[in-house]
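hey
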């Protein structure tokens, strides 16, 4: 029967698995497979069992996507159509060319429909079977974490542990030269020097505040004295006129 044929509305799913650092794009020709994604918003979770038996037990979270004309989805725009928004510095998908520049640009709403070309998803729950190219392989990070808090989180450290001993170093080998190692400079690292500098800045602020209060008190005292002298001269002038 003609009605039982699968509809050829091809849609791609760009699926990532952060624990392994992998991602892969899957093309689905049958619209019925991706229909459960329709009317879902960014950050909604979808049961991936509709994509096939190998996806049984998997749960995907929608993180973004593009429509067929290439316009990206925007979180917070509650529509499945394309709208024009006034963008400025700090808005995603816009890079101002001049200082203070604002510009109206078309962007896609955060609701998925049949006009989407690519949907970006992240695996939040893993099923029983492995997906080739995503969950069965591991892609190690080329660079380790740089921020002190991220290093503690990566190695499950406490505040008492020395973060500098856990920096991931890269070995660089060049032909005919001795191998060298590169390590990132740790950001947001609280050192005794930083604590001393912060204490000094805080004491300088307190001293400035105390000086300002002292100057304000002296100014008010001088102002009160001038006002009193003005009133005294005015009263003496009136008494002379009455005589």
């Amino acid at each position: 029967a003609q009605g039982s044929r699968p509809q050829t509305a091809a849609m791609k799913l760009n699926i990532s698995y952060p624990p392994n650092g992998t991602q892969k794009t899957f093309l689905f020709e049958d619209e019925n497979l991706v229909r459960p994604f329709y009317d879902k918003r960014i950050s909604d979770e979808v049961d991936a069992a509709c994509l096939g038996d190998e996806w049984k037990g998997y749960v995907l979270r929608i993180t973004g996507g593009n429509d067929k004309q290439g316009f990206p989805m925007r979180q917070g725009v509650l529509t499945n159509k394309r709208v024009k928004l006034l963008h400025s510095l700090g808005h995603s998908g816009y890079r101002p060319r001049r200082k203070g520049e604002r510009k109206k640009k078309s962007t896609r709403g955060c609701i998925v429909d049949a006009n989407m070309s690519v949907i970006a998803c992240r695996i939040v729950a893993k099923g029983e079977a492995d997906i080739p190219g995503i969950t069965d392989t591991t892609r190690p990070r080329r660079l380790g974490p740089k921020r002190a808090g991220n290093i503690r989180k990566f190695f499950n450290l406490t505040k008492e542990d020395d973060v500098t001993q856990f920096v991931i170093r890269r070995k660089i080998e060049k032909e005919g030269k001795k191998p060298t190692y590169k390590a990132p400079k740790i950001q947001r690292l609280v050192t005794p020097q930083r604590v001393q500098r912060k204490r000094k800045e805080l004491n300088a602020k307190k001293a400035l505040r105390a000086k300002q209060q002292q100057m304000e008190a002296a100014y008010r005292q001088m102002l009160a004295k001038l006002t009193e002298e003005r009133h005294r001269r005015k009263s003496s002038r009136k008494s002379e006129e009455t005589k």
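DSSP finds three helices and nine strands in the chain. Confidence is low (pLDDT under 50) at residues 1-8.
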